[in-house]
Amino acid sequence: MVFVSRSKANFWVFTDMIKLLHTSDWHIGAKLNGISRADDHTAFFEWLVETVTSEKITALLVAGDIFDTAQPSAESEALYYECLVALGKSSLREIVILGGNHDSAARLEAPKAVLKALNVHVVARYLKDHDENLLVPLHEADGSVGAVVVALPFVNEFRLGVRTTGVDSDSLRATIADKFRVLYSQLCDRSIELYGDLPMIGMGHLTVGGDVKSDDSPLQVHMVGTIGGLPVSVFDERLRYVALGHIHRMLPVQTGDTREVWYSGTPIPVRFSEARIDRKALVVTVDDSNTYHPKSLTIPESRQLLEFRGDFDSVNSSISSLVNSATLPALLKITLEVDQFQATLTSQLNDTLDRRFEGEELRPLIADIVQVTSAAVKRSEGEVAVIKRDEMNPISVFEQLCDWQGEDFDELRPLLEQLIQSSAEA
User: SS3 of 325, please?
Assistant: First the structure.
């Protein structure tokens, strides 16, 4: 790559194209009511390796939440390392792994030295006064540095030195935004000190932008639910592309200029609501004027996540005519509208599935089922539902409660799952 400094001219002359693949929020180890998603991740990783090769990708950026929990299982870690080994045999020159709020920074960085020898750069923790650890050089075919990734992992308020008690939400949001703005600016300055005036690519795991709430987006990562998304101005203008993680759908953040700031979303639907939108990854090329051009790629669906709601007869009829169009057994979320709770309905639906898919390996699985009484359906009339909570699991009980209260179950469910997990690990 031949460079013309931006301080002398407003363009770069590239002889070796930078081509990035931006993904995030793998959530390896995720389950749906105890059903493993390891096969879903295996299918995604196979697609990822093929895509890196076919698209001639030079650097892979993974913007946080590599694992679903801070203490992933041995199976999850094995899947992660098998993926990195396969990617190491591809055309990639570098892989940048960012830590997210679901990840244990210490656990993710434990094999950092070994992985660096394989050109896998893990950036999972923010340590003040160690800026160079957050800068990852991207190398050209001849070994020279062609660009620098400013990789800032998830940083909580405590690490930023932000006081969160006794402060109103607007002031808190402004303080946190200012902290990030200064931090990204300092990292850009440090990059120039170490590597010269090269193109800089940003990474982060945080909530940025205005309307980020949707059926498949989690709560705000900083001060959950209280301060909303941070302004895009937290990113230094020298960062012409910023690869973000945390929001679970592909989403551009409006910048008002030529910079590109994107979320790539989860590669597999972690929750049923996420299956309503195609899963994406972003291929990003850069031209001679240092302008970045993102192109979305649809990740093939390896498993259907299907939702059914209605009375027993209508739901039973629907699942009796199911056709599995993916390579893995479909997972079903069923909401039955009933007059009163009936313990045998789940087994009756399973019998229907057994008959419909007799002898087939791809028999769908009921991952989530809840019975909603007439009072829940018509709660405006003030009726009281009769529920036998001991015959339901905690997730189902919580969903029923959300239904009564008019709350968004899919948005609150991750918090409940974290509480259940914390209680189990205590």
Answer: coil
Alpha carbon distance 371, 311 (integer Å):
9
pTM score, whole prediction: 0.81
User: Taking a C-beta distance cutoff of 8 angstroms, is the pair 302, 313 a contact?
Assistant: no
Residues 227 and 343 in one domain: no
Calculate the alpha carbon distances from 217 to 26, 34, 48, 103, 271 in Å: 14, 22, 23, 18, 10
Q: How far is CA 233 from CA 16, 73, 184, 254, in A?
A: 30, 38, 10, 11
Residue 263 phi/psi, 5° resolution?
-100, 140
Domain co-membership, 40 together with 57: yes
Percent of the chain with pLDDT over 70: 80
My answer on whether 310 and 285 are in the same domain is no
Of residues 229, 175, 178, the one with CA closest to residue 207: 229
Q: 61 and 20 in contact (C-beta within 8 Å)?
A: yes
Question: Cα torsion for 411, 412, 417, 423, to the nearest 10°?
Answer: 160
**What DSSP designation does 381 have?**
G
Joined tokens for residue 128: 């003040």
Residues β-bridged to residue 294: 284
Q: What is the pLDDT of residues 94-143, one digit of tens each?
A: 999 999 999 999 999 999 999 988 899 999 988 877 778 899 999 888 88
Q: What is the residue whose two structure tokens read 């303080």?
A: 175
- Residue range of the domain that includes 388: 305-425
Nearest-5° angle of CA 241, CA 247, CA 252? 40
